[in-house]
Amino acid sequence: MPRNTERSREIFERAVGYLPGGVNSPVRSFRGVGGDPIVVASGAGSKLRDVDGNEYTDYCGSWGPLILGHAAPDVVSAVQEAASRGLTFGVATEGEATLARLVCEAMPSMQLVRFVNSGTEATMSAIRVARGFTGRSKIVKFDGCYHGHSDGLLVQAGSGVATLSLPDSAGVPESYAAETLLAPYNDLDALTEVFEHYGSEIAAVIVEPVAANMGVVPPLEGFLEGVRTLCDDNGSLLIFDEVITGFRVGLGGFQGAAGITPDLTCLGKVVGGGMPVGAYGGRADVMQLIAPLGPVYQAGTLSGNPLTVAAGIATLTALQRPGFYEELDRKTTALLDGITNVGMRLEVDLVLNSVASLFTVFFGTIAPVDYTTARTADAQRYARFFHALLDRGVYFPPSQFEACFVSAAHTDADIAQTLGAIEESLVESR
Ligand code: PMP
Description:
Blueprint: H1 6-16, E1 40-44, E2 47-50, E3 55-58, H2 73-84, H3 94-106, E4 112-116, H4 119-134, E5 138-143, H5 159-163, H6 174-177, E6 180-184, H7 188-198, E7 202-207, H8 223-234, E8 237-241, H9 253-258, E9 264-268, E10 278-282, H10 284-287, H11 306-319, H12 324-345, E11 350-355, E12 358-363, H13 371-374, H14 379-391, E13 394-395, E14 404-405, H15 412-428
Parallel strand pairs: 3-13, 5-6, 5-7, 7-8, 8-9
Antiparallel strand pairs: 1-2, 2-3, 4-10, 9-10, 11-12, 12-14
4'-deoxy-4'-aminopyridoxal-5'-phosphate (PMP) binds next to α4.
Protein backbone atom coordinates (compact mmCIF):
# COMPACT_ATOMS: atom_id res chain seq x y z
CA MET A 1 0.00 0.00 0.00
CA PRO A 2 2.83 2.54 0.55
CA ARG A 3 2.88 4.73 -2.51
CA ASN A 4 5.88 5.60 -4.56
CA THR A 5 6.17 9.38 -4.25
CA GLU A 6 9.72 9.79 -5.47
CA ARG A 7 8.99 12.15 -8.35
CA SER A 8 6.57 14.27 -6.31
CA ARG A 9 9.30 14.68 -3.70
CA GLU A 10 11.97 15.49 -6.23
CA ILE A 11 9.83 18.11 -8.03
CA PHE A 12 8.69 19.67 -4.76
CA GLU A 13 12.27 19.96 -3.51
CA ARG A 14 13.14 21.77 -6.72
CA ALA A 15 10.11 24.06 -6.38
CA VAL A 16 11.14 25.05 -2.85
CA GLY A 17 14.23 26.67 -4.36
CA TYR A 18 12.11 29.10 -6.32
CA LEU A 19 8.64 29.36 -4.79
CA PRO A 20 8.10 30.34 -1.12
CA GLY A 21 7.44 27.01 0.57
CA GLY A 22 7.30 25.37 -2.85
CA VAL A 23 3.74 26.56 -3.46
CA ASN A 24 1.64 29.44 -4.73
CA SER A 25 -0.99 29.14 -2.00
CA PRO A 26 -0.07 28.08 1.54
CA VAL A 27 -2.45 25.23 2.33
CA ARG A 28 -1.07 23.24 -0.63
CA SER A 29 2.15 22.78 1.33
CA PHE A 30 0.52 20.24 3.73
CA ARG A 31 1.61 22.23 6.80
CA GLY A 32 -1.78 21.43 8.36
CA VAL A 33 -1.24 17.68 8.07
CA GLY A 34 2.54 17.29 7.79
CA GLY A 35 4.45 15.26 5.26
CA ASP A 36 5.30 15.90 1.64
CA PRO A 37 2.64 17.32 -0.68
CA ILE A 38 1.75 15.41 -3.80
CA VAL A 39 2.55 16.99 -7.16
CA VAL A 40 -0.31 16.53 -9.60
CA ALA A 41 0.13 15.63 -13.26
CA SER A 42 -3.50 15.49 -14.39
CA GLY A 43 -7.11 15.09 -13.40
CA ALA A 44 -10.10 13.42 -15.05
CA GLY A 45 -13.61 13.22 -13.61
CA SER A 46 -13.37 12.44 -9.90
CA LYS A 47 -9.71 11.41 -10.11
CA LEU A 48 -6.40 13.16 -9.58
CA ARG A 49 -3.21 11.54 -10.85
CA ASP A 50 0.14 12.52 -9.37
CA VAL A 51 3.49 12.63 -11.17
CA ASP A 52 4.34 9.16 -9.80
CA GLY A 53 1.21 7.70 -11.39
CA ASN A 54 -0.77 7.30 -8.15
CA GLU A 55 -4.51 7.90 -8.56
CA TYR A 56 -6.76 9.52 -5.96
CA THR A 57 -10.50 10.06 -5.72
CA ASP A 58 -10.55 13.79 -5.11
CA TYR A 59 -12.75 15.51 -2.53
CA CYS A 60 -10.90 18.82 -2.66
CA GLY A 61 -11.91 19.68 -6.22
CA SER A 62 -9.42 22.56 -6.48
CA TRP A 63 -11.09 23.96 -3.32
CA GLY A 64 -14.54 24.19 -4.84
CA PRO A 65 -14.66 25.17 -8.51
CA LEU A 66 -14.82 21.64 -9.93
CA ILE A 67 -18.48 20.84 -9.39
CA LEU A 68 -18.38 18.93 -12.72
CA GLY A 69 -15.13 17.15 -11.87
CA HIS A 70 -11.71 17.43 -13.48
CA ALA A 71 -11.39 18.24 -17.18
CA ALA A 72 -15.16 18.13 -17.76
CA PRO A 73 -15.35 17.61 -21.56
CA ASP A 74 -17.89 20.40 -22.25
CA VAL A 75 -15.87 22.90 -20.24
CA VAL A 76 -12.54 21.92 -21.76
CA SER A 77 -13.85 22.14 -25.31
CA ALA A 78 -15.49 25.51 -24.61
CA VAL A 79 -12.15 26.83 -23.35
CA GLN A 80 -10.25 25.34 -26.31
CA GLU A 81 -12.70 26.88 -28.74
CA ALA A 82 -12.46 30.27 -27.01
CA ALA A 83 -8.66 30.07 -26.93
CA SER A 84 -8.54 29.47 -30.65
CA ARG A 85 -10.30 32.83 -31.13
CA GLY A 86 -7.88 34.76 -28.89
CA LEU A 87 -6.87 34.70 -25.24
CA THR A 88 -7.71 38.24 -24.25
CA PHE A 89 -8.72 41.45 -25.96
CA GLY A 90 -9.19 44.07 -23.27
CA VAL A 91 -12.35 44.90 -25.19
CA ALA A 92 -15.95 43.88 -24.47
CA THR A 93 -17.06 40.44 -25.69
CA GLU A 94 -20.46 38.80 -26.12
CA GLY A 95 -19.61 36.01 -23.69
CA GLU A 96 -19.32 38.45 -20.78
CA ALA A 97 -22.87 39.63 -21.34
CA THR A 98 -24.09 36.03 -21.58
CA LEU A 99 -22.40 34.92 -18.36
CA ALA A 100 -23.62 38.05 -16.57
CA ARG A 101 -27.19 37.25 -17.66
CA LEU A 102 -26.90 33.66 -16.44
CA VAL A 103 -25.64 34.86 -13.06
CA CYS A 104 -28.25 37.59 -12.61
CA GLU A 105 -31.08 35.27 -13.66
CA ALA A 106 -29.93 32.60 -11.21
CA MET A 107 -29.54 35.07 -8.34
CA PRO A 108 -32.11 37.84 -8.72
CA SER A 109 -30.58 39.90 -5.89
CA MET A 110 -27.73 40.53 -8.35
CA GLN A 111 -29.20 43.18 -10.61
CA LEU A 112 -25.77 44.11 -11.91
CA VAL A 113 -22.56 42.08 -11.71
CA ARG A 114 -18.87 42.80 -12.29
CA PHE A 115 -16.41 40.00 -13.05
CA VAL A 116 -12.94 40.00 -11.53
CA ASN A 117 -10.16 37.41 -11.27
CA SER A 118 -10.41 35.95 -7.77
CA GLY A 119 -12.65 35.73 -4.74
CA THR A 120 -10.25 38.05 -2.96
CA GLU A 121 -10.82 40.74 -5.55
CA ALA A 122 -14.58 40.22 -5.38
CA THR A 123 -14.82 40.73 -1.61
CA MET A 124 -12.45 43.69 -1.45
CA SER A 125 -14.29 45.38 -4.30
CA ALA A 126 -17.71 44.71 -2.79
CA ILE A 127 -16.49 46.31 0.43
CA ARG A 128 -15.22 49.33 -1.45
CA VAL A 129 -18.55 49.90 -3.17
CA ALA A 130 -20.39 49.38 0.14
CA ARG A 131 -18.19 52.07 1.69
CA GLY A 132 -18.76 54.32 -1.31
CA PHE A 133 -22.52 53.86 -1.05
CA THR A 134 -22.84 54.40 2.70
CA GLY A 135 -20.05 56.93 3.19
CA ARG A 136 -18.96 54.84 6.20
CA SER A 137 -15.66 53.06 6.76
CA LYS A 138 -16.11 50.18 9.22
CA ILE A 139 -17.01 46.64 8.24
CA VAL A 140 -17.96 43.61 10.31
CA LYS A 141 -16.69 40.11 9.64
CA PHE A 142 -17.17 36.91 11.59
CA ASP A 143 -14.35 35.10 13.31
CA GLY A 144 -13.35 32.03 11.29
CA CYS A 145 -14.97 33.20 8.06
CA TYR A 146 -12.44 33.71 5.27
CA HIS A 147 -12.98 36.23 2.52
CA GLY A 148 -9.63 36.22 0.76
CA HIS A 149 -6.35 37.85 1.68
CA SER A 150 -6.92 41.60 1.33
CA ASP A 151 -5.59 43.65 4.25
CA GLY A 152 -8.83 44.52 6.01
CA LEU A 153 -10.11 40.96 5.88
CA LEU A 154 -7.05 39.23 7.36
CA VAL A 155 -8.09 39.85 10.90
CA GLN A 156 -7.89 36.53 12.74
CA ALA A 157 -8.94 34.82 9.52
CA GLY A 158 -9.64 31.11 9.39
CA SER A 159 -8.62 28.66 6.68
CA GLY A 160 -4.92 28.49 5.84
CA VAL A 161 -4.04 31.14 8.34
CA ALA A 162 -5.81 29.29 11.14
CA THR A 163 -4.01 26.08 10.36
CA LEU A 164 -0.69 27.87 10.31
CA SER A 165 -1.45 29.20 13.80
CA LEU A 166 -1.13 32.79 12.66
CA PRO A 167 -3.93 34.63 14.40
CA ASP A 168 -3.32 37.52 12.07
CA SER A 169 -1.05 38.25 9.13
CA ALA A 170 2.17 40.20 9.44
CA GLY A 171 2.19 43.12 7.04
CA VAL A 172 -1.37 44.22 7.67
CA PRO A 173 -1.26 47.78 9.06
CA GLU A 174 -3.01 48.12 12.40
CA SER A 175 -4.93 51.08 11.04
CA TYR A 176 -6.48 48.86 8.33
CA ALA A 177 -7.34 46.11 10.78
CA ALA A 178 -8.98 48.68 13.05
CA GLU A 179 -11.62 49.29 10.40
CA THR A 180 -12.74 45.65 10.66
CA LEU A 181 -14.91 44.62 13.60
CA LEU A 182 -15.06 40.94 14.50
CA ALA A 183 -17.96 38.97 15.91
CA PRO A 184 -18.35 35.24 16.57
CA TYR A 185 -20.24 33.39 13.82
CA ASN A 186 -23.80 32.39 14.74
CA ASP A 187 -23.88 34.82 17.68
CA LEU A 188 -26.56 37.48 17.17
CA ASP A 189 -26.15 38.90 20.68
CA ALA A 190 -22.51 39.66 20.01
CA LEU A 191 -23.36 41.24 16.66
CA THR A 192 -26.08 43.32 18.31
CA GLU A 193 -23.47 44.59 20.74
CA VAL A 194 -21.13 45.52 17.89
CA PHE A 195 -23.97 47.48 16.27
CA GLU A 196 -24.84 49.17 19.58
CA HIS A 197 -21.29 50.54 19.75
CA TYR A 198 -20.56 51.26 16.10
CA GLY A 199 -23.89 51.08 14.23
CA SER A 200 -23.67 54.45 12.51
CA GLU A 201 -20.11 53.73 11.32
CA ILE A 202 -20.71 50.30 9.80
CA ALA A 203 -20.76 50.25 6.00
CA ALA A 204 -21.37 46.53 5.70
CA VAL A 205 -21.44 43.13 7.31
CA ILE A 206 -19.75 40.43 5.24
CA VAL A 207 -20.61 36.82 5.95
CA GLU A 208 -20.23 33.37 4.46
CA PRO A 209 -23.88 32.28 4.62
CA VAL A 210 -22.52 28.79 5.26
CA ALA A 211 -19.12 29.10 6.88
CA ALA A 212 -16.77 26.75 5.04
CA ASN A 213 -13.32 28.02 6.00
CA MET A 214 -13.26 26.69 9.56
CA GLY A 215 -14.58 23.42 8.23
CA VAL A 216 -18.25 23.50 7.25
CA VAL A 217 -20.34 25.31 9.87
CA PRO A 218 -23.94 25.95 8.82
CA PRO A 219 -25.82 29.01 10.06
CA LEU A 220 -28.08 28.39 13.06
CA GLU A 221 -31.76 28.98 12.50
CA GLY A 222 -32.53 32.69 12.49
CA PHE A 223 -28.89 33.82 12.41
CA LEU A 224 -28.78 35.18 8.86
CA GLU A 225 -32.28 36.66 9.20
CA GLY A 226 -31.07 38.44 12.34
CA VAL A 227 -27.99 39.77 10.54
CA ARG A 228 -30.25 41.06 7.77
CA THR A 229 -32.47 42.88 10.28
CA LEU A 230 -29.54 44.45 12.14
CA CYS A 231 -28.13 45.72 8.84
CA ASP A 232 -31.52 47.17 7.86
CA ASP A 233 -32.01 48.83 11.25
CA ASN A 234 -28.60 50.49 11.04
CA GLY A 235 -28.43 51.46 7.38
CA SER A 236 -25.59 48.99 6.74
CA LEU A 237 -25.31 46.76 3.68
CA LEU A 238 -25.32 42.98 3.92
CA ILE A 239 -22.71 41.21 1.78
CA PHE A 240 -23.07 37.47 1.26
CA ASP A 241 -19.76 35.89 0.35
CA GLU A 242 -21.02 33.00 -1.76
CA VAL A 243 -17.61 32.24 -3.26
CA ILE A 244 -18.04 28.67 -2.02
CA THR A 245 -21.83 28.32 -1.77
CA GLY A 246 -22.66 30.06 -5.07
CA PHE A 247 -23.84 27.49 -7.66
CA ARG A 248 -22.91 24.79 -5.13
CA VAL A 249 -26.03 25.00 -2.97
CA GLY A 250 -28.35 25.09 -5.96
CA LEU A 251 -28.41 27.59 -8.83
CA GLY A 252 -29.67 30.40 -6.61
CA GLY A 253 -26.90 30.04 -4.02
CA PHE A 254 -27.56 29.83 -0.31
CA GLN A 255 -29.57 33.06 -0.53
CA GLY A 256 -32.03 31.32 -2.85
CA ALA A 257 -32.34 28.29 -0.60
CA ALA A 258 -32.74 30.39 2.56
CA GLY A 259 -34.91 33.11 1.04
CA ILE A 260 -32.70 35.93 2.31
CA THR A 261 -31.79 38.83 0.05
CA PRO A 262 -28.35 40.37 0.54
CA ASP A 263 -27.52 43.80 -0.85
CA LEU A 264 -24.32 42.51 -2.45
CA THR A 265 -23.06 39.03 -3.31
CA CYS A 266 -19.54 37.79 -3.97
CA LEU A 267 -18.90 34.80 -6.20
CA GLY A 268 -15.87 32.84 -7.35
CA LYS A 269 -14.86 29.25 -7.96
CA VAL A 270 -17.80 27.46 -9.75
CA VAL A 271 -18.82 30.55 -11.75
CA GLY A 272 -15.46 30.35 -13.55
CA GLY A 273 -15.58 26.60 -14.15
CA GLY A 274 -11.99 26.16 -12.95
CA MET A 275 -10.48 29.26 -14.57
CA PRO A 276 -9.37 32.21 -12.39
CA VAL A 277 -12.52 34.15 -11.45
CA GLY A 278 -14.43 36.26 -9.03
CA ALA A 279 -17.60 38.31 -9.34
CA TYR A 280 -19.49 40.77 -7.23
CA GLY A 281 -22.90 42.23 -7.75
CA GLY A 282 -26.19 43.21 -6.21
CA ARG A 283 -28.59 46.13 -5.95
CA ALA A 284 -28.50 48.30 -9.03
CA ASP A 285 -28.45 51.53 -6.98
CA VAL A 286 -25.28 50.31 -5.26
CA MET A 287 -23.55 48.76 -8.28
CA GLN A 288 -24.21 51.89 -10.34
CA LEU A 289 -21.60 53.64 -8.21
CA ILE A 290 -18.83 51.61 -9.89
CA ALA A 291 -16.71 53.16 -12.65
CA PRO A 292 -17.48 53.98 -15.43
CA LEU A 293 -20.99 54.78 -14.09
CA GLY A 294 -19.93 56.23 -10.78
CA PRO A 295 -17.10 57.36 -8.50
CA VAL A 296 -16.01 53.97 -7.05
CA TYR A 297 -12.99 52.83 -9.02
CA GLN A 298 -12.35 49.18 -9.79
CA ALA A 299 -10.77 47.71 -12.93
CA GLY A 300 -8.94 44.68 -14.33
CA THR A 301 -6.84 43.92 -17.43
CA LEU A 302 -7.99 40.29 -17.57
CA SER A 303 -11.39 40.64 -15.87
CA GLY A 304 -14.14 38.82 -17.76
CA ASN A 305 -11.52 37.26 -20.02
CA PRO A 306 -12.81 35.00 -22.81
CA LEU A 307 -11.46 31.72 -21.38
CA THR A 308 -12.98 32.21 -17.94
CA VAL A 309 -16.24 33.34 -19.44
CA ALA A 310 -16.38 30.31 -21.78
CA ALA A 311 -15.67 27.93 -18.88
CA GLY A 312 -18.26 29.71 -16.74
CA ILE A 313 -21.00 29.54 -19.38
CA ALA A 314 -20.31 25.84 -20.09
CA THR A 315 -20.41 25.08 -16.36
CA LEU A 316 -23.58 27.01 -15.55
CA THR A 317 -25.26 25.46 -18.60
CA ALA A 318 -24.49 21.98 -17.24
CA LEU A 319 -25.83 22.94 -13.80
CA GLN A 320 -29.16 23.96 -15.36
CA ARG A 321 -29.86 20.41 -16.54
CA PRO A 322 -32.93 19.05 -14.75
CA GLY A 323 -32.04 16.93 -11.74
CA PHE A 324 -28.39 18.05 -11.57
CA TYR A 325 -28.44 19.08 -7.91
CA GLU A 326 -30.77 16.25 -6.87
CA GLU A 327 -28.31 13.70 -8.23
CA LEU A 328 -25.32 15.44 -6.62
CA ASP A 329 -27.14 15.58 -3.29
CA ARG A 330 -28.16 11.91 -3.58
CA LYS A 331 -24.53 10.83 -3.96
CA THR A 332 -23.39 13.13 -1.16
CA THR A 333 -26.08 11.76 1.15
CA ALA A 334 -24.95 8.20 0.40
CA LEU A 335 -21.39 9.16 1.33
CA LEU A 336 -22.41 11.04 4.48
CA ASP A 337 -24.76 8.28 5.68
CA GLY A 338 -21.95 5.81 5.11
CA ILE A 339 -19.47 7.88 7.13
CA THR A 340 -21.97 8.27 9.97
CA ASN A 341 -22.59 4.51 10.05
CA VAL A 342 -18.91 3.62 9.97
CA GLY A 343 -18.16 6.19 12.67
CA MET A 344 -20.86 4.74 14.93
CA ARG A 345 -19.82 1.16 14.29
CA LEU A 346 -16.19 1.94 15.13
CA GLU A 347 -17.23 4.21 18.02
CA VAL A 348 -15.16 7.11 16.72
CA ASP A 349 -15.86 10.56 18.12
CA LEU A 350 -16.67 12.51 15.00
CA VAL A 351 -19.10 15.22 13.99
CA LEU A 352 -20.17 15.44 10.38
CA ASN A 353 -21.24 18.94 9.31
CA SER A 354 -22.68 19.34 5.84
CA VAL A 355 -24.70 21.53 3.51
CA ALA A 356 -25.52 20.20 0.02
CA SER A 357 -22.31 18.73 -1.48
CA LEU A 358 -20.06 20.41 1.12
CA PHE A 359 -19.01 18.59 4.26
CA THR A 360 -16.38 18.33 6.98
CA VAL A 361 -15.51 15.42 9.25
CA PHE A 362 -14.59 17.03 12.59
CA PHE A 363 -12.83 14.76 15.07
CA GLY A 364 -14.30 15.42 18.50
CA THR A 365 -17.57 15.42 20.38
CA ILE A 366 -18.50 19.10 20.12
CA ALA A 367 -20.65 20.08 17.13
CA PRO A 368 -18.97 23.24 15.81
CA VAL A 369 -21.17 26.33 15.57
CA ASP A 370 -18.41 28.95 15.47
CA TYR A 371 -14.64 29.32 15.31
CA THR A 372 -14.06 28.58 18.99
CA THR A 373 -15.96 25.30 18.87
CA ALA A 374 -14.50 24.37 15.46
CA ARG A 375 -11.02 24.76 16.92
CA THR A 376 -11.75 22.06 19.51
CA ALA A 377 -11.55 19.46 16.71
CA ASP A 378 -8.54 17.16 16.89
CA ALA A 379 -6.40 18.38 13.98
CA GLN A 380 -3.69 15.83 14.74
CA ARG A 381 -6.10 12.98 14.38
CA TYR A 382 -7.35 14.54 11.17
CA ALA A 383 -3.74 14.64 9.92
CA ARG A 384 -3.35 10.89 10.57
CA PHE A 385 -6.72 10.23 8.92
CA PHE A 386 -5.75 12.36 5.90
CA HIS A 387 -2.52 10.41 5.33
CA ALA A 388 -4.24 7.06 5.82
CA LEU A 389 -6.78 8.10 3.17
CA LEU A 390 -4.03 9.26 0.84
CA ASP A 391 -2.37 5.85 1.09
CA ARG A 392 -5.69 4.33 0.05
CA GLY A 393 -6.18 6.59 -2.96
CA VAL A 394 -8.53 9.20 -1.48
CA TYR A 395 -7.61 12.89 -1.43
CA PHE A 396 -9.30 15.00 1.26
CA PRO A 397 -8.33 18.65 1.82
CA PRO A 398 -5.02 18.78 3.68
CA SER A 399 -6.45 20.53 6.76
CA GLN A 400 -9.09 19.78 9.39
CA PHE A 401 -10.52 23.26 8.90
CA GLU A 402 -11.61 23.06 5.27
CA ALA A 403 -14.59 21.74 3.33
CA CYS A 404 -14.73 18.52 1.31
CA PHE A 405 -16.47 18.82 -2.06
CA VAL A 406 -18.39 16.13 -3.92
CA SER A 407 -18.69 16.59 -7.70
CA ALA A 408 -21.08 15.35 -10.35
CA ALA A 409 -18.23 13.19 -11.65
CA HIS A 410 -18.11 11.09 -8.48
CA THR A 411 -19.71 7.73 -9.22
CA ASP A 412 -21.50 5.35 -6.89
CA ALA A 413 -18.42 3.12 -7.23
CA ASP A 414 -16.20 6.04 -6.09
CA ILE A 415 -18.42 6.54 -3.05
CA ALA A 416 -18.25 2.83 -2.18
CA GLN A 417 -14.46 2.78 -2.58
CA THR A 418 -14.16 5.93 -0.49
CA LEU A 419 -16.27 4.47 2.31
CA GLY A 420 -14.01 1.40 2.41
CA ALA A 421 -10.95 3.65 2.61
CA ILE A 422 -12.58 5.79 5.31
CA GLU A 423 -13.35 2.74 7.45
CA GLU A 424 -9.74 1.50 7.27
CA SER A 425 -8.37 5.01 7.81
CA LEU A 426 -10.52 5.60 10.89
CA VAL A 427 -9.07 2.41 12.36
CA GLU A 428 -5.50 3.26 11.38
CA SER A 429 -5.68 6.84 12.67
CA ARG A 430 -7.00 5.98 16.13
N1 PMP B 1 -14.34 33.88 0.02
C1 PMP B 1 -14.48 32.60 0.37
C2 PMP B 1 -15.71 32.18 1.10
C3 PMP B 1 -13.49 31.67 0.07
O1 PMP B 1 -13.64 30.40 0.45
C4 PMP B 1 -12.35 32.09 -0.64
C5 PMP B 1 -11.23 31.14 -1.02
N2 PMP B 1 -11.30 29.87 -0.61
C6 PMP B 1 -12.25 33.44 -0.99
C7 PMP B 1 -13.27 34.30 -0.66
C8 PMP B 1 -11.05 33.95 -1.74
O2 PMP B 1 -11.07 33.47 -3.04
P1 PMP B 1 -9.72 33.41 -3.89
O3 PMP B 1 -8.88 32.33 -3.28
O4 PMP B 1 -10.19 33.10 -5.28
O5 PMP B 1 -9.08 34.75 -3.80
